[in-house]
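Assemble and predict.
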Amino acid sequence: MVKIENVSVTYSSINARVKALEDINLTLEDGRIYTIVGPSGSGKTTLIYAIAGLLKPSEGSVLIDGEKVVGPSRNMAVILQDFGLFPWKTVEQNIALGLVIRKENPGKIKAIVEDILDKLSLKPFAHHYPGQLSGGQKQRVAIGRALALSPSLLLMDEPFSSLDAFTRENMQHELLDLWHQNPMTVLLVTHSIEEAVFLGQEIIILSSSPGKIKDIIPNKGWGFREGEWYYKTAGIIRTKLMEYIK
Ligand SMILES: Nc1ncnc2c1ncn2[C@@H]1O[C@H](COP(=O)(O)OP(=O)(O)OP(=O)(O)O)[C@@H](O)[C@H]1O
Ligand SMILES: [Mg+2]
């Protein structure tokens, strides 16, 4: 279980101080999928960084299974907004990276990487470098690298934003398939209301300046892209977002 307790984050630089998050309290139950929506600048990426241990909150703390987060941990995988790929490593090597760091057996690494290349349709690019890929292909490599770790906590910052509509829907289904096989805790940031409602068992809405949690909407109709519940929930979120952007 992830517990975020009274977390505030203020960025300070020579000429400015920006309060990116204010008094965030949130519990992520094990094996559930949470989506976060909120205007640009509402602190979504900052929240992901704080949970991942990539940034120390100015106030409050993040606890995973009761232990305070002080840095990235083994059971967690993060997909960052800018992909975070190593340009000097091939697609295959980028996907294998976390497993190599964990010193997994080479045969096992090879099998996992093969499976992921296949699932994410990246086989033809296995020996390419990130500089030779499109934005959407890079994004899929970043997703592959995270999934290779079979994490119990998966933090994703707009992971499907560079994908075409068709690939995006495929990836959303792929994520749900993987989750059904191994129900990890997922926190996924998105700007797409449709994606938030399709994937999120709970939908967290942030408002900006400073970022605060405005609502957490339970979504019993997750996993469906149509129907009365879907349209009703999407409508509620749209209205709330418009209110918070004003
Ligand atoms: N390193 C930094 N130094 C100073 N200010 C920062 C830094 N990173 C983010 N900010 C500020 O903190 C606020 C929250 O930023 P953050 O990137 O978390 O927003 P976001 O919700 O992820 O936005 P987007 O939807 O555009 O990705 C913004 O006002 C941003 O300008
Ligand atoms: Mg962001």
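The longest strand covers residues 17-28.
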